[in-house]
């Protein structure tokens, strides 16, 4: 009986060491790369009033995954002073876009490494794009997920863009931050850090472990 207990203790220790070793080999995610564009004279309109949150036009994202990102954006907008309401009652509209790309190092297949944000060649409001480059290195042969979250805040009555932002990062598929629920919170938090931010500035924001 004593030998059996001793054997169980050895097996338990080995399992614990294996778990620790597996955790230690998973690279950290991020940091998130964040770019914001602020329309001239829009600062007074940002962070107040009513807002409606919707999926950006032309996107096929739907279901639980997109819902997680929209919910995370809603929490951040509320923290900035907005009150979420129906589209009919809203003064402003936040359009949320999402892109998730899996890079497969062993097969050589990879998704795009940049995505359009803000205005063409650095100008504001065209929606065409300054590329935000995301390093897909990540280290090691495991698959890497790159996730990009974009938000455009518009004046509902005028239809003009008041603010645009895009945040993206890469994570090993074994990392918890590769999962939609975790990445939604992390990206929304990074995107609205220091809101509204400086027009055209790109910053890096460390992600939680």
TrEMBL record:
Asked if the Swiss-Prot or TrEMBL record annotates the protein with the keyword Transmembrane, the reply is no
Q: Where is the signal peptide?
A: 1-24
Domain named DUF4136 is located at: 59-197
Q: Print the keywords alphabetically.
A: Signal
A Pfam family of the record is DUF4136
Q: Which InterPro entries match?
A: DUF4136
Segments spanning the bilayer are none
UniProt protein name = DUF4136 domain-containing protein
């Amino acid at each position: 009986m004593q030998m059996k207990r001793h054997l169980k203790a050895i097996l338990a220790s080995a399992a614990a060491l294996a778990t620790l070793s597996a955790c230690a080999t998973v690279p950290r995610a991020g940091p998130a790369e964040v770019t914001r564009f602020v329309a001239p004279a829009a600062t007074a309109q940002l962070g107040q009033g009513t807002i409606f949150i919707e999926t950006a036009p032309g996107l096929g994202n739907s279901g639980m995954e997109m819902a997680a990102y929209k919910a995370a954006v809603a929490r951040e907008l509320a923290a900035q002073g907005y009150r979420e309401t129906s589209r009919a009652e809203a003064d402003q509209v936040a359009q949320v876009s999402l892109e998730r790309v899996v890079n497969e190092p062993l097969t050589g297949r990879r998704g795009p490494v940049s995505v359009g944000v803000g205005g063409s060649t650095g100008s504001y409001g065209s929606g065409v794009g300054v590329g935000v480059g995301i390093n897909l290195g990540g280290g090691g042969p495991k698959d890497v997920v790159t996730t990009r979250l974009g938000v455009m805040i518009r004046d509902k009555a005028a239809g003009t863009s008041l603010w645009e932002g895009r945040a993206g990062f890469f994570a090993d598929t074994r990392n918890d931050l590769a999962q939609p629920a975790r990445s939604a919170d992390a990206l929304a938090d990074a995107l609205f850090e220091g809101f509204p931010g400086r027009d055209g500035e790109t910053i890096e924001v460390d992600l939680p472990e």
